[in-house]
Amino acid sequence: GDSVTQMEGPVTLSEEAFLTINCTYTATGYPSLFWYVQYPGEGLQLLLKATKADDKGSNKGFEATYRKETTSFHLEKGSVQVSDSAVYFCALSDLSGTSGTYKYIFGTGTRLKVLA
Amino acid sequence: EAQVTQNPRYLITVTGKKLTVTCSQNMNHEYMSWYRQDPGLGLRQIYYSMNVEVTDKGDVPEGYKVSRKEKRNFPLILESPSPNQTSLYFCASSIKTGFRSSTDTQYFGPGTRLTVL
């Protein structure tokens, strides 16, 4: 079945450091790929997405490129800020088997802590 | 304001006492879903609904029931809660889903923290 694997955290960086959070996936169809962010005490919110191979999603300085050949969707940011401290989830949506419905699969989340 | 609301936000209950967590969205979304979030396991989908009267099991449906009688509401029912259902629950909705659709971004509620003693 479909799955999402992302690097375990926590990731601790100093302010203005470069960030990479790795995400790889397995899927039977042509999934859409997402990064969601969860700030303390809140629900998840969309950070960026890509719907087909070679698409690049970007938002708030974060970027991720849909790489079909390596089944990856790594999250990057050139210069992190303290306010970026949160938990980041990689996710996919894909056609579920023969039922014709769509399922969402989330990774386990990576906690990022940025120090001033 | 466009939003997904959940009630209650916090609930402590005892084993076997039936409970319902409500979820409502005001965005006329077709797709709604329930997840549970547990440390080290991320979010796991419990049930989802493609539209009114259309529901399907996610990855961890055991011990849960749902119904979708109206487009805006998608309650989660625990008929006989057990301690292993202690978790943080999220409801989410999206316009719809489809092949490479641009409308499948999910909007999440604030979460319900459930403790079953």
Question: Any overview of this molecule?
Answer:
- The complex is a heterodimer of chains A (116) and B (117).
- Chain A is mainly beta and 116 residues long.
- Chain A contains no helices and 12 strands.
- In chain A, strand 10 and strand 11 (101-106) form a beta hairpin.
- Chain B has no helices and 11 strands.
- In chain B, strands 2, 4, 5, 6, 9, 10 and 11 form a 7-stranded mixed β-sheet that branches.
- The radius of gyration of chain B is 14 Å and the shape is globular.
- The A-B interface holds A 30, 32, 34, 36, 42-46, 49, 51-52, 89, 91, 93, 95-96, 99, 101-109 and B 4, 31, 33, 35, 40-45, 48, 50, 56, 58-59, 90, 92, 97-102, 104-111.
Topology diagram in text:
The complex is a heterodimer of chains A (116) and B (117).
Chain A: E1 3-6, E2 11-14, E3 19-21, E4 23-26, E5 32-38, E6 44-50, E7 56-59, E8 62-65, E9 75-77, E10 86-96, E11 101-106, E12 110-115
Chain B: E1 4-7, E2 10-13, E3 19-25, E4 31-38, E5 42-51, E6 54-57, E7 65-66, E8 76-78, E9 87-94, E10 107-108, E11 112-116
Parallel strand pairs in B: 2-11
Antiparallel strand pairs in B: 1-3, 3-8, 4-5, 4-9, 5-6, 7-8, 9-10, 9-11
Q: Can you tell me the residue ranges of chain A where pLDDT is under 50 for at least 5 consecutive residues?
A: none
Give the uncertain stretches of chain B in residue-range form: none
Arithmetic mean pLDDT of chain B: 91
- The number of distinct helices of chain B, counting runs of at least 4 residues, comes to 0
β-strand percent of chain A reads: over 45%
Tally of DSSP β-strands of chain B: 11
Proportion of strand residues of chain B: over 45%
- H/E topology pattern of chain B: EEEEEEEEEEE
- Label the overall shape of chain B: globular
Mean pLDDT of chain A: 91
Give a brief outline of the structure.
Chain A contains no helices and twelve strands. With 116 residues, chain A is an all-beta fold.
